[in-house]
């Protein structure tokens, strides 16, 4: 089962440039969380800080009672074994076959026999749909296959935390849908804690249990998916619904003249909240909640049409809003 990551007061700068300040959140164990934000808001820096590749200026990152910020290098090395990381471009070794790429962490960090390594590598490659491609080189396969090979490598040490950086980068919408489905199915199977950094709004609206939004050097909001998708907070509303009216401009923030020009304009209605993507075989994930559960528990009326199958954008989902309300 995945473990919780408790982040408190995290602050990071590069020289005089502050990336973000006082970021505080808890990634719940075994759940899928997504981190969003305009370009340049430090989402990838946040991932690297969580795994200890970058040191924050202030704050703490608590995992299993250990603060990664203050750990000695040897102890940090041990905690990092809890992590699997899928880098934005897959970060595969171009001169190695996919098999050797996936086997690399096992050969570097364990004393397993080649027979055991082979069994694990073939299992993980089958898990991500790459059986039969073991002998191919990264340059011989598509971008989507490279992403899946990188994911197989991230899984070989059976991580309890999986960090995923821009999985949709360079992928067309169909391949993005496939890899999103793969994340849902993997979470159901391995029950790890997932954190996905993405720009893809459809991914953010349909995949995660929780959503966070980095904006203007701080964490604008973090919480359950339905909380953010029903939020009236201007930057959250604008970003998650891909609207032009709001504080975000072509540069990160609109200037006073742009905001004044929008003054008095009627905001478009919030779109319906879609059903969350389910597993391929229909078995529920441990972290899965009934559609509309957060809204009901918190007295929030979701936008009209929410949780209807026609708004899910996910093939094979046929649960209506009325069915969801009786769950």
UniProtKB/TrEMBL annotation:
Region annotation (Disordered) ranges: 254-327
Gene Ontology terms for molecular function: ATP binding; ATP hydrolysis activity
Segments passing through the bilayer: none
Presence of keyword Transport: yes
SMART domains from the UniProt entry: AAA (SM00382)
Pfam families assigned: ABC_tran
Stored InterPro entries: AAA+_ATPase, ABC_transporter-like_ATP-bd, ABC_transporter-like_CS, P-loop_NTPase
Domain ABC transporter: 5-241
Record's keyword terms, sorted: ATP-binding, Nucleotide-binding, Transport
PROSITE patterns in the cross-refs: ABC_TRANSPORTER_1 (PS00211), ABC_TRANSPORTER_2 (PS50893)
Biased composition range(s): Basic and acidic residues: 283-296
Name by which UniProt lists this protein: ABC transporter ATP-binding protein
Organism annotation: Knoellia locipacati
